[in-house]
Design goal:
116 residues, mainly alpha, two-stranded antiparallel ribbon, 4 helices, 3% strand
């Protein structure tokens, strides 16, 4: 489908094409507080081309390159993957959860042979 981006009134399909996004992703952007409000009185959401382009031009620049590679920044996802996990987060006074029989939760049941 060819979408003419030079028309003055845009649908969600125009917004998606202009931003090089899928329609669903572009729709998510339209829910942002800073995205221009659609024109009222229509059965579809419609925006003026200039309002959408002005909104896009006003966005802060995205860092170039991949996170953590030459930009001097590390994404929080990278930190979350590499941060060591604490061995036990319970306070020292908290007892370990036990099952009946005195074994800790998650511990295997000891083997006992069947009686004949």
């Amino acid at each position: 489908m060819n979408i003419d981006l030079s028309v003055p009134i845009w649908t969600i399909e125009h917004v998606a094409a202009a931003l090089h996004l899928e329609v669903d992703t572009a729709r998510d952007y339209t829910y942002r507080e800073d995205f221009p409000r659609p024109r009222a009185g229509f059965s579809r959401n419609l925006w003026t081309r200039q309002e959408v382009l002005d909104w896009f031009a006003g966005l802060p620049p995205k860092p170039r390159g991949r996170a953590g590679r030459g930009t001097g920044t590390v994404s929080t996802a990278t930190i979350a993957r590499t941060a060591p996990r604490p061995a036990d987060t319970r306070p020292a006074s908290a007892p370990a959860a036990t099952r009946p029989g005195g074994r800790p939760a998650g511990a295997p049941k000891p083997y006992t042979p069947r009686r004949k």
